[in-house]
Structure formats: structure tokens, C-alpha cells
Design a protein that fits this description.
By secondary structure, this protein is α/β, with parallel strands linked by helices. Helices cover 38% and strands 23% of the residues. It has a six-stranded mixed sheet, sandwiched between helices. A five-stranded mixed sheet has the order 3-2-1-4-8, sandwiched between helices. A three-stranded antiparallel sheet has the order 5-6-7.
């Protein structure tokens, strides 16, 4: 049986055909489309099916955005994805929708050793809850619980809770963000690529934490996306930039603290997994003791958190594979 699987984001949409025979790790065919070039998901699906000429008995889509009653509005797009409309349009008896972080969570069970980098092996509890955080354009969060012989993923908007600063530097960050007009400062606003890293950089620059080199200022002045420039500058050992390094270090400590927050809330004795586009690019920083120290600095629960495994998901298509695992599984 073939199933159409999609990973739907505001920038790109990946569609693929998976089969129950080949399993969720091996798509029969896969294509990527620029989401903003199409008026709807239906338009992309129609083009894809016409090109691949393979039948699909059902479909499953991972979507960047909350799903309510089988409907979802894709983040940063005007699309509304409706499972009932997709069923009627393509004559599918079943269409599954899940949040994009749920799909990353479902991928964990099927990822191979080469898809994972371990920060802390810990002492995993079999069947223990699992926390998933994915800093990318935003900060996604989800978690897994074990029941009836398998893990079930749960969506969350946990990154939108109020940022809890630790230490004077982070307290200053919160005050700075308030002064910029943000009465509510979420973790996503200070711990993501789209918002967080540029905000951290601007804050540290504003307080004179370090000088901004002219070459970096010139790059940032013409950049549409400043985050990769700042991250690359922080990891460029040929010409060290103290301001960029401080920005990345602050980001890593805030990420560690929020990973510890989620781990405590769900008691993730099965492990903590970091996904998203940023985590694999900053492995050296995550290996720095400051990350785990921020994660574990929870008072009397420090010893417990020390036992929790911490891993980084390296496979950039974990979301697609997780959606395939979910789509191929019995309802």
C-alpha cells in the first residue's frame, strides 16, 4: 500500500510516496516545492501526483502550525489545510494531519545511529517520556509518552510561555525586550533563529558587551537573514568575533534552560532530543559544559536531570520520516 506523505512548511513543502512494504525510511519518490509559489496545498499535490504517476491509497501531512478539528492554518502562509477537503478532492478514505513537531517526535523511534549525536548518554528509562525541542525559524516543542507498546506524540506550544531569565545578563535581556515594546517575552522570542538570535545580538550590542567588527556590520547591513551570518561568525576561528560568540553562548544557555524546563514538566526519563535546523550546526557549542549546566540547574532536581539522556537529531528530513511512520501505522 502506498501513502502520500508531506512535510508542509512556510518556506518549502516536501512530498513523497512511501509504501508499507519499503517502510518509513525509504521513500519511493520525493520532490520539494517552494510553498509560496502555490495558492494551496491541493495545487502542489495535484502537480506532484501528475509527475510521479504513482497511486496513493491515503495521505498524511506534517504541518507547521496548530491543528484543530482536522484543520490547520500553515504558519507564514495563507493556506488552510482541511482533511475533509483533501479527502473529497483526491478521493482518499483517510487523511491524517499532525503538527510538524509531532512528526519529528515520531521519527525518533526509526532513526539510525548516524542520525543521532549524543551529548549525554545518561541512564534512559525504557518507556520513559521523551522531550523534543527544535530551534529553527521558531522554537518547536513536543513530547512522547509510552502506552500499549508504542510511543504517542503530543503537540505543544510550550515555546510561547513567558521567558524566565537566569542571572543578571538574562534579566537585562528581558528588560531590553520590554523596552522594545514586547510586554510578553516568550522563549521563542529569545531562543530561535528567526527572532531569538537577532534579538540576542542586538541586546548585547546595545549594552556594549563587545565591539561589532566592521566586516560583520557590513554583512549584516545587506543580509535578509542575519542568523546564519551571526552563527557562522561565532564559529569562525580564523577571525574570532567576541560579540557573535557571546550571542551564540547566550542562545545555548537559554536553550539549555528551556530544555531542562520541558524535561521537568514531562519527566523525560526516556531522553531529551534537540531537532530543528540550528542544533546540528552548533554541536561544538552544545558540547560545551555550559549547555548541560543550564539544563540541569534546577535546584534539588539537578541529580535527576543528570541522568536524562540528551541527543541531537542530525537527519534534516526527520519530520518527513516521522510523518511517514505515523501515516503508515494503523489508525
Amino acid at each position: 500500500m502506498n501513502v502520500l506523505i508531506g512535510d508542509i512548511g512556510g518556506t518549502k513543502t516536501i512530498l513523497a510516496i512511501f509504501s508499507s512494504e519499503a517502510g518509513p525510511n525509504k521513500p519511493l519518490v520525493e520532490m520539494t516545492y517552494p510553498s509560496t509559489h502555490y495558492a494551496s496545498l491541493e495545487a502542489i499535490i495535484a502537480e506532484f501526483l501528475a509527475a510521479v504517476k504513482l497511486p496513493a491509497a491515503s495521505a498524511c501531512f506534517a504541518i507547521a502550525g496548530p491543528i484543530v478539528a482536522g484543520r490547520a492554518r500553515v504558519t507564514n502562509l495563507t493556506w488552510v489545510v482541511d482533511s475533509d477537503n483533501l479527502k473529497s478532492t483526491f478521493m482518499w478514505p483517510e487523511v491524517k494531519l499532525l503538527n510538524d513537531l509531532e512528526s519529528v517526535a515520531y521519527a525518533i523511534a526509526i532513526l539510525g545511529p548516524g542520525d543521532i549525536h549524543t551529548i549525554n548518554p545518561g541512564v534512559p528509562v525504557q518507556g520513559g517520556n521523551i522531550a523534543v525541542l527544535a530551534p529553527g525559524t521558531g522554537l518547536g516543542e513536543a513530547f512522547l509518552t509510552y502506552s500499549n507498546g508504542r510511543y504517542q506524540a503530543h503537540a505543544s506550544e510550550g515555546s510561547h510561555v513567558s521567558f524566565g531569565p537566569v542571572g543578571q545578563l538574562q534579566i537585562g535581556l528581558l528588560q531590553y525586550m520590554n523596552q522594545q515594546g514586547h510586554s510578553h517575552v516568550s522563549y521563542e522570542r529569545v531562543c530561535s533563529g528567526g527572532l531569538g538570535i537577532p534579538n540576542l545580538y542586538a541586546y548585547l550590542k546595545s549594552i556594549g558587551h563587545a565591539a561589532e567588527p566592521a566586516w560583520l556590520a557590513e554583512k549584516l547591513a545587506v543580509a535578509e537573514d542575519s542568523t546564519p551570518i551571526i552563527v557562522n561568525a561565532a564559529q569562525d576561528h580564523t577571525r574570532p568575533c567576541e560579540l557573535a560568540i557571546a550571542t551564540l553562548n547566550l542562545f545555548i544557555t537559554i536553550l539549555g534552560a528551556e530544555a531542562g524546563n520541558l524535561a521537568l514538566k514531562i519527566l523525560s526519563s526516556g531522553g531529551i532530543y534537540l531537532g530543528g535546523g540550528i542544533s546540528p550546526r552548533i554541536l561544538a557549542g552544545l558540547e560545551n559544559p555550559a549547555f548541560l549546566d543550564a539544563l540541569r540547574s534546577k535546584g534539588r532536581f539537578r541529580e535527576m536531570l543528570t541522568k536524562y539522556p540528551v541527543h541531537v537529531i542530525l537527519n534534516p528530513k526527520a519530520g518527513l520520516l516521522g510523518a511517514a511512520a505515523f501515516g503508515l501505522s494503523p489508525s
